[in-house]
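Summary for the steering committee. The consortium agreed at its last meeting that each partner would contribute one worked example illustrating the joint modelling workflow. Our contribution is presented below. We chose a case with several input lines so that the handling of multiple components could be demonstrated. No manual editing was applied between input and output; the record is shown as generated.
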Amino acid sequence: MKSLSKASKQLIQLHVNGETHDAVVRSADTLLIALREQLGLTGAKRACENGDCGACTVLVNGKSSHSCLSLAVEVVNQPITTIEGLLDSPVSKAFVDNWAIQCGYCTPGFIVNCHSLITTHPNADDQLVEEWLQSNICRCTGYEEIREAVHTLLASGQKENE
Amino acid sequence: MIAFDFNYIKPTTAKEASKLFLNAKQEGYKAMFYSGGTEIITLGRVNRLQTDMVIDLKGIQECNVLEISDNELIIGSAVSLNEITHSKLFPLLGKTVQRIADHTSRNKITIGGNLNSELIYKEGILPLLAADAKVKLAKGKEQRIIPLEAVFNKQWKLDEGEFLVQILLDKGYLDLPHKALKKTRISKVGYPVVSAAALVKDNQIRIAFSGVCQYPFRSIELESVLNDTKVPIMERVGTALRHLPEDIVDDIQGTKAYRTFVLRNVLKDMLEELELTK
Ligand SMILES: Cc1cc2nc3c(=O)[nH]c(=O)nc-3n(C[C@H](O)[C@H](O)[C@H](O)COP(=O)(O)OP(=O)(O)OC[C@H]3O[C@@H](n4cnc5c(N)ncnc54)[C@H](O)[C@@H]3O)c2cc1C
Ligand code: FES
Ligand code: FES
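What follows is the complete predicted structure of the assembly.
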């Protein structure tokens, strides 16, 4: 049997929040691990690591993505946005204003996903909001306030457009 | 964390992808085709699979096609479930895959990955079975196009190193009257207790199921019972239940009795709605 050289680690570049970062990763490392352990970006949270809870949500190429379900090596040439790149965003403000935070563990994932929803579909109806928000779980069950935060934003955006 | 190391390779042609797989095999290593990667990552994390190499199919142009060309809809195996839904090119498929996992996961899960999943569900295959889809497969330098049902019967019969490149659908099936119904146990997101996708062609209902048996299936005998409109609907449903290819699944997601109850209602709803379109 010839030996397959399985490089245990490699240097890659990740384009996160408008900056290019070097990261030393194993091919088996998920994007979530690389963000948290290599780049020190701990906003994306580690929870189920199974695609079920949405706590690790980031944007890859502008689309919501569970960072626990991507390999870091898979997204080297793609723009990534994490919660750290959405500081002072309208969605963050709406979450604060609507008391849509309890323990806060799910909050970064919700904010990133809601940001993507609102920018992609500024006229989203209730059905679409429900479909998108089903991707995130809040253990503190603050769903009503989160829904209100999204609806407030949608309503203000729609008013601006009128 | 995934505890084992593997090589990640992203070829740009189908030929290269298959060759990488076969070469690894020849040298005694295990390679896996990698599409959305969500199943490989989640099963790898809990040590339910091991591999020495993953071959990412997303770099292959043919695997990313989603278009109508001549009289066929061509869907690349690496196209995401959300892309299929948003394209609206085959509404029955769009609606069926829209109920797989959650919206964020559907940005990553691909149709090729769903169809080749280790799980029993593979819900994306239901509309393809109902619409007599063909598949383009690649192995080494060779590519072949064959009817889906010739390579998928309970499970895939792919050669070693062979993989799904594209799905091909006759345009005539895309806009037929149709219905997709998925019943889950509790929340809307979840594995199916029963999932069914049906369309009506030439006045006949064609229907495929997931969650009922240990594999997705379409049964011609069952369809002929359902299409016998001289018999009252509930009688047809009762007879249809005797034409399942095997025993109904009995597991933690749903007991056999519960799945039977749900299946009965799904069939009734399907027949009532689709017969109005005839
Ligand atoms: C949160 C979540 C919820 C889910 N819910 C559902 C559900 O409700 N219904 C349902 O049906 N499924 C569901 N699934 C399962 C999902 O559809 C499968 O895990 C699917 O395999 C993921 O697709 P992928 O593209 O990420 O696959 P990958 O991880 O890339 O591959 C999966 C398998 O398919 C093989 N493969 C991939 N592409 C090809 C190809 N082109 N040719 C040959 N083999 C190939 C791989 O080698 C691997 O064995 C869910 C998954 C998640 C993460
Ligand atoms: S940690 Fe990624 S979805 Fe839960
Ligand atoms: S605020 Fe605690 S998990 Fe959502």
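The longest strand of chain B covers residues 163-170. Chain B has eleven helices and 14 strands.
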